[in-house]
Amino acid sequence: MTRISNLVNNLPKGAVVGIDWLQRQGVNTDLAKHYVRAGWLQRVGVGAYALRGAPPEWQGAVWGLQQIDAPIWPGGATALALQGYGQNVGFGSGEQISLFCGSRFQLPAWFKRQDWPVEISLHRVSLFAREAEEAAWQIVAWRDEELRVSSPEQAVIELASLVREEHSFERLQHAMESLPTLRPRRMNALLGACRSVKASRLVVLLGEHFGHPWVERLNRDEINLGRGKRQLWKGGALHPEYAITVSRSLLDG
Fold it and tell me: In angstroms, what CA-CA distances link 143 with 125, 132, 146, 161, 249?
């Protein structure tokens, strides 16, 4: 197999990769430039390439970054949708894509400048005090490749961490209502490592509110629910047990 045939076979349509990935395929910078001139590759930005004639896809860009161990992944509502829970979070075709990354990760300039057909939001997080690898990740298929996304358990905690006002709370509430089968060991590991008291309280209280069986199997001694009140927005209601803002309809119901 020729070098270019190997490259075409290994580089998925819609993926965006850097020179580090290309070098693993035996393609250095000069050869990459030659392939651009020859019409095999297209430059997406400085040091970034895709197959010619294949519009870059956001999933392919994330896949390419994950190939070089960049700490970036689809999370929150996007991760839930990719795992078949889209209706549970009201995820439609025009929905904003939620990507999460490490707090110190710098998104490449080519990613920022790309005219993606969807709106993308990037959340820099340091949500967990320690790694909970087995609980944190799920693999989904993208063009016969593996894309690492947040597990449903991590995704719902990420969604809770984004609650700022009543609309985002109600979205979390809707998602939580439809997630009775979350895995208690994974949830316990993640909540035990979670730095966000707000996210932990919201996930536990909503799981309890809907009577989900996994809540009963949590070890509360390992979860930091903090102390004191947490007001998230004005006009909401303070939950009597968890002392955090919720929608009035939740308490009225």
Answer: 28, 27, 8, 30, 42
Taking residue 27's Cβ as centre, other Cβ atoms within 10 Å add up to 23
The count of structural domains within the chain is: 2
Q: What's the mean pLDDT when you consider all of the chain?
A: 93
Domain assignment of residue 61, yes or no: no
Please give the residue range of the domain that contains residue 38. Answer: 3-56
Q: What is the pLDDT of residues 96-129, one digit of tens each?
A: 899 999 999 999 999 999 999 999 999 999 999 8
For residues 177 and 249, what is the distance between their CA atoms, to the nearest angstrom? 14
Rounded to an integer, what distance in angstroms lies between the CA atom of residue 54 and that of residue 211? 47
- At which of 30, 56, 82 does a domain end? 56
> Is 78 a domain residue?
yes
- Answer whether residue 237 is part of any domain: no
| pLDDT grade for 253, boundaries at 50, 70 and 90 | low
Give the per-residue pLDDT at 94.
62
**The pairing of beta strand 145-150 with beta strand 137-142:** antiparallel
